């Protein structure tokens, strides 16, 4: 059972709901705080067998907006009849919800200070405040470049601040990476924000998911597992939310199947509306890791553009996309990166498809 409080509910009203819930034997009430487009609000989740807990006493308490019975599945991330105002969150001055599109364009892997500076300068030129920068890279082969790790964080954050970037999506593979990021942000004087990325190889690394949930500070970009069902990925994502961080965006990045060839993965953006109806998480698409190559179609548009269009026309509200100033010298995933001269065309393309999508909703 979920008791949603009004945005104006105060701490005393929340405490009254908690006390009322504690009166039921074997019920553990837990509070979750959200920040939606209408403002901050709190939910009290009743964990345990609630079949004998009546709704009415809670509905009558001051400050309560709604009481909903939920199955235990996707308890926090699920959309249990909640409306669009309860989708998404605010972070570092940006709104991550379904009302607009954010493009997180950047380096798959940080390979030099110069690449970071060139990338960020280009983003600033076109007014982008969100990027991706991989410092910790989980690679298939132990002999491949593993990322520069903590050593690159000071200049990544410093350049982000200098170029008015408000959010850097960065993958973490171990809880020590979270600590290193938080420490480096603080040392740099918090010039930017970070969204912790869980990569497809760690989708079911439950201990890492719990730690990402418990840090509670930085929002999370969670990628679906490449070889498991969508339901398994959503359950894994719920670990992060249930441990205390509900500010998550859910990323589709293609699934592993030879049926997708010549693409790296089989593009799964038909799942955008499925994730949107089952959860209240904004949906991210990653056309770069889905398509996995730079190849231009006969119409002159790179296949990465076409895949992006498929996700956006289905209602995705974030795009994670690889760019590199010199893809031939990139140390990771160079073959799928777009060159910087494609950035304005890509942004125009995103704008056009998004407005087509919005016009279809009228
Ligand atoms: C990435 O985004 O850099 C990445 C490794 O992606 P994925 O986890 O989807 O393979
Ligand atoms: Mn990559």
Describe the protein.
- It is a single chain.
- The protein has 362 residues and is of the alpha/beta class.
- Helices cover 32% and strands 19% of the residues.
- It has an 8-stranded parallel β-sheet. Strands 2-3-1-4 form a 4-stranded antiparallel β-sheet. A two-stranded antiparallel ribbon has the order 5-6.
- The chain is globular, with a radius of gyration of 21 Å.
- The two termini are 34 Å apart.
- The model has no long low-confidence stretch (mean pLDDT 96).
- Phosphoenolpyruvate binds next to loops.
Based on the model shown, name its key terms.
362 residues; binds manganese (II) ion; globular; 2 domains; Alpha-Beta Plaits; binds phosphoenolpyruvate; alpha/beta; TIM Barrel
Number of domains: 2
> What is the first-to-last residue Cα distance?
34 Å
What small ligands are held by the chains?
A: phosphoenolpyruvate, manganese (II) ion
CATH class (first level) name of the largest domain: Alpha Beta
Structural class: alpha/beta
CATH fold field value of the largest domain = TIM Barrel
Using only CA atoms, what is the Rg?
21 Å
Helix content: 25-40%
Return the average pLDDT rounded to an integer.
Answer: 96
